Amino acid sequence: MKKIRYLLILFLITLHGIASAQNLADRVVEHTYPNGLKLLMIKRDTSPTIAPYILFKAGSVDESDDTRGIAHMLEHMLFKGTKTIGTKDFEKEAVILAEIDKIGDALDIERAKGSRANADKITELEAALKEQQELAKAWIVQGEYTEIYTQHGSTGFNAGTSVDYTIYTVELPSNKLELWAMLESDRLKNAVLREFYVEREAVKEERRMRVDTQPGGKLYEQFIAAAFTTHPYGMPIIGWPSDIAMLNRRKAQEFFKVHYAPNNSVMVIVGNIDIDKTIALVEKYFGDIPSQPLPSEVTTVEPQQEGERRIEVEFDAEPQLMIGYHKPTIPHFDDYVLDMISAILSDGRTSRFYKNIVEEGIAVSANSINGYPGARYNNLFFISGTPRSPHTTVDVEEVIYAELERLKTEPVAEKEFKRILKQVDANFIRNLSSNAGMAQQLAFFEGIAGDWRYVLDWRENMYKITPEDIMRVAKTYFTKSNRTVGTLIKKEDAAPAGDESEGYE
Amino acid sequence: MNERISTGLAITTLIVCLIVWGIPSTFAKPHEELTFEPITFKPPVPEKRTLSNGMTLYLIEDHELPLFNINGLIKTGDIYDPADKIGLAAIFSSVMRTGGTVSREPDALNEELESMAAAVEVGMSREYGTVNLSTLAEDIEKGLEIFADVLRNPAFREDKLELRKQQAVEGIRRRNDNPIQLAWRNFSALLYGTDHPFGWYSEIENIESITVNDLKAFHTKYYHPNNMMLAITGDFETETLIPQLEKVFEGWESTEITFPDVPTIDAVSEPSVNYIFKDLPQSVMLIGHFGIKRTPDFPDYFALRVMNDILGEGGFTSRLMTEVREKHGLAYMVGSIMQTTYYTNPGEWFAYSQTRTDKTAEAISLIIDVVKGLRDAPVPEAELQRTKDSLINSFVFGFESSAQIAFQQMMLAYRGFSPDFLETFTDNIAKVTAEDVQAVAQKYLHPDALTIVTVGNKENFDRPLDEFGMVNEIEIAQPEPPPAEPMPEASEAEMMKAKEILAAAVAAHGGLEKLQTVKNLVIEAQVMGNTPQGPMQIDGTSYYVYPDKYRQDLKLPQGEMAYIFDGTSGFAITPMGNQPMPPQMASTFKDAIFRETLWLLPNLSQNDIPLQYAGTEEVDGKPASILLVPQPSGEMLRLFVSDDTHYVVKLSYRETAQGTAVIRETYMKDYRDVDGVKVPYHIVQNVEGQLFSESKVTNVTLNAELEESLFQEPE
After folding, report:
1. In this predicted complex, what is the ipTM?
2. Which has the higher per-residue pLDDT, B437 or B703?
3. CB atoms within 10 A of CB B559
4. Do A389 and B329 touch (CB under 8 A)?
5. B279/A316 Cβ within 8 A
6. Considering the entire predicted model, what is its pTM?
7. Which fold has domain A309-493?
8. Which chain A residue has the Cα nearest residue B281?
9. CATH 3.40.50.970 fits A31-87+140-286, yes or no
């Protein structure tokens, strides 16, 4: 009798889930243009606002050794305007821009010589660069591109670069859709990467802010570099200091030309729109951008790890721990299983890490994320922990491993599955309640998984997972020889050690 | 220039209508040719209801998705933390949820909520508390029942409080890891001082002192239906919901609440330049002063909004961003914030930047110049218009979801704003002139009264910071909790032994009856202080009044000083004026009074204070028995009683001040008789094994006539 009741409940939940997934499937409208541009739309009339996002499948993974950091640098540069925006006379400005490039190249080359550099020459070139930058100011209308958006009521106007992609985001009042289409297509067709060297300084500050002054940022950078010896996933998105110091406009333009193609991008517009008019409007502004051969994918495959790797970072901060296991990316079935495992380990107060590590007072936090640092290529199952003194990272490691071992030997209870599946279905509904959140999600799955419907398949696959799958997957990937462990160690005597980022110049 | 029309947006007929605009340029730009259809938008208006128990509701039915949300607001906040229990409100809010309810064990509560993909969360801000429910529409009834249970019957289980306290202590241990957090904590503390809760941050001893009873008392005081409002949105029917709410809150009565007084503060703060060392390649700088107290009748609000955007809150186009980042490449993050959410106390106004170490002073100068610029000249018309357009056109994003709309209305009511505040918002922004902006800049920005906090490594600064004023270097110590020193397991025999030793000591010091007659004690002494600058001769007088008052007068070469503790708070009288002591020092004083031998001995014999014998050790070559005694702060006191004379010859204990713990040892010699009790006339104090002071007592008076005013702060 009990069993029947249980089945009935599960059935109801499933029905509900299908309903919410179906709701999503019904609401997404797709349109593909002849130049390969894919447009996804969801009409939501809750408020007169729109969230138009554009994603380019161009991330730091697409860089080479001499352009590392350029995907991110280009993202910054695309806010500097176009041939008509941000300038009073582009023809006149272009002459100075060419001069700035020449001097900047010479300066970078000289500085890169390090201790063998000619200091006088550097001073001379710096003065020359400064002079040209001053001349350029006569033609530049600083910040005009961003000002237009701001004046028209934008919110969340920004962009982000990951290992896998670069995304350009904004929300606007819904009557500004055409303004968006005009401005975005203008920057795709006519971007001018002006004020490059000043922005490069801001990017160096960004690196110092995110990495060099942040214990967690510093540890992660070293950790991921140890986990990937070969695949570019091991490289920092922002670039190493010496990489940033050698970035220039030419490299950015080249990256732009190769990767920012309509057939290498996804456009998503969620909000108060008229579907047909939107399709026509996008056609009008983006339809004439030619498609082009797609850049090649990364072919380097991270070799199988043959033994545990351990790294330490000394920093003026209390200890932290990071652990990563190599595993396949989407749409491998084991990737879904690891999503489920991650939920079992660290979603909410009923999760195993929370109950057995945090509530036991061993760590103040312990979390898992499946799929670091990206999803286009095989990636890591990532775990982080912050010990609570007097417990150490060694103690936290020990209890984390105990939880991973348990996954290998003890079948997960039905109750745990049920709870997670209910959350999966509820999240389908909750995600729909934000234009921006929905735009981000659809762009990601269309761009990276290759089809936004991945979210629907994902749900179905989550329902297929059995306790045996969990045990098998845990045994396959959670092995000592497949893991990388990073620990942040307190630097005991913080003797002034000089600028740790001295490699910048 | 093209004519522009920015029609106001009213909440009932929200119309975004911005036709053509442009910036001065030598040729027409394509986007300037665009025209925009006006938007007509009628956002839902929350329905206001009151439950029979006095609870106010703001309801919006929204059937787009099968979801249900409650955002509750309670009139309370961190500002009501007691001075010696800083962090109580925050810990309370956390344990209110994690500690389960009277009928639901914490695990059961978590399981129940998460298995229906629902959440109940409790939060605390400076000036209000929150409690939220989020559930699928199919679970409204169950969700409401749990929500009400958490609100009405939290159990504050001891183990969950202990866990939360441990986490808070770990947070304190880690509070210097992140330079921004380090700078911010010090900035607020410097600005508000120790008198105002906005400047407070928890020390380990504050956290350790919090008990289950404190949490229960906090709940009893503030959590009543008449002291809260709920914004309810989602897939429900009002007429079904109201009876459900009445049912779950049935029997929960409204109660009169008296709110503690919070000190008021002046609108302008003292300037100061502060430096904190951290060996990093980038400096964090916070520059600011008190901001505004945003009461409902605050007519400058609209001009201030415009000014703040122009200065540093307007994202990529603000002046700070343009100057510091876009023109000079001196930061990635730079801007300013005027806190406008506080209504009983002025919040902070501050500018911030993170800049490479060798450009630190340059960045600070640039920021100050930008601030001055807004006071010195009216903003150009184009910049003003652009900023106003931005505020007016983006106003619609305050109405994106029904939850946001309902919450916003509730918040306005909480702060006493008129409901038409939103309806007139865009009109009021449109009216702001360049003169208004300059006027508010002059009124609310004070470049001559800046508190500057810089975290970084001055070795590599471009210029010393003293160009901005005298630099106060703040030493940051690593806060460590006292080592866990549980009372060791004691055998019956050891406890008996402890009692025997105590009895002998009581007898030796004059006997219980005699000791009990001592109500106050004045000790005059010549103290030789061992200072880093060499020995220093001090004449000192200490006054102890049973059970909780203490005063110490010191005659120093540089003038007279006094430390006074009146039983709850302490202050110092110095040649430079009177200064309050950090509230955390209260427990240090309480311990000091507790340790006074003439009271400690009768106190231990009469009261049920756990006492243990911990072996013997030689003191000045003679064997002494050690007794372990917990002090009021919880720190362990080691009391050494001579096996020969039975006098207390040594005390040893840990003391934590400003996050640093040290071991103090006091040696007591040359016992003499004073009115039938025994008092040491020669006292040597060591800190961390180093000589700290040596005192020769010149006079001891018992039960002196003492004026109350000795323990009051002089005018």
Report:
1. 0.90
2. B437
3. 10
4. no
5. yes
6. 0.80
7. Cytochrome Bc1 Complex; Chain A, domain 1 (3.30.830)
8. A499
9. no
